[in-house]
């Protein structure tokens, strides 16, 4: 079920560049940045952005999509890609996809209860951790979950940060659609 994607050094450098741009935009938003702090949400902020950008890069490589490089002062609105799932929908419905990535070995898909804005979520992991240099790395896409799957879960309170999250364990994630079944929205 997991899909391994090789991210070349060129794309690792691009992910690092995207993460630095995002880091700058978040630092400009003093209120949000002070809430999370440099060590907020479990990782140093620059590493958190880099890990996320690597997950997005892997999704884009696997499905032959364009990576969203836009930076925002606080959030991207909850989605990284706008696509159509050919096998999932017979309609022309746009599916908003949010890619999550973690260096943990067997991470849950975790989405804050106030941030369930996408239609479909993809959980990735970095089996070798984030690369220290701009070397080739592997990203494993573990599976996906629909918005409904998240909303049907009992929220859990984050003991460290106080907010509530929905969790989907890796064993409950859906198999990802094959590459030809995901089409970009132009």
Can you put this structure into words, describing what you see?
With 186 residues, this protein is α+β, with helices and mostly antiparallel strands. Helices cover 27% and strands 26% of the residues. The chain has one domain. Helix 1 crosses helix 3. It is globular and about 40 Å long.
Task: Explain the layout of strands and helices.
Layout: E1 3-7, H1 9-27, H2 30-36, H3 45-63, E2 81-85, E3 95-102, E4 109-112, E5 120-125, E6 137-146, H4 147-151, E7 156-157, E8 164-168, E9 182-184
Parallel strand pairs: 3-5
Antiparallel strand pairs: 1-6, 2-3, 2-9, 4-8, 5-6, 7-8
Helix pairs in contact: 1-3
Give structural attributes.
186 residues; three-stranded antiparallel sheet; PD(D/E)XK endonuclease domain-containing protein
In short:
The chain is an alpha+beta fold and 186 residues long.
Question: How would you write the strand order of the largest sheet?
Answer: 1-6-5-3-2-9
* Assembly classification: single chain
Q: So what's the overall shape?
A: globular
Number of helices: 4
DSSP strand count: 9
Mean pLDDT: 85
What structural class do you assign from the helix and strand content? alpha+beta
């Amino acid at each position: 079920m997991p899909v391994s994607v090789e991210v070349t050094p060129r794309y690792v450098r691009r992910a690092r560049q995207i993460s630095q741009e995002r880091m700058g935009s978040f630092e400009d938003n003093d209120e949000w940045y002070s809430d999370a702090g440099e060590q907020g949400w479990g990782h140093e902020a620059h590493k958190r952005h880099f890990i996320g950008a690597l997950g997005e890069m892997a999704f884009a490589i696997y499905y032959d999509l364009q990576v969203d490089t836009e930076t925002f002062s606080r959030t991207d609105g909850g989605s990284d890609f706008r696509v159509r799932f050919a096998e999932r929908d017979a309609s022309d419905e746009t599916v908003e996809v949010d890619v999550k990535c973690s260096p943990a070995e067997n991470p849950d898909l975790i989405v804050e209860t106030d941030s369930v804005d996408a239609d479909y979520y993809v959980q990735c992991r970095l089996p070798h951790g984030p690369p220290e240099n701009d070397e080739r790395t592997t990203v494993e896409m573990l599976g996906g979950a629909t918005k409904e799957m998240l909303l049907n879960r009992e929220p859990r309170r984050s003991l460290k940060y106080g907010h509530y999250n929905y969790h989907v364990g890796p064993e409950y994630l859906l198999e990802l659609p094959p590459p030809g079944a995901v089409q970009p929205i132009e």
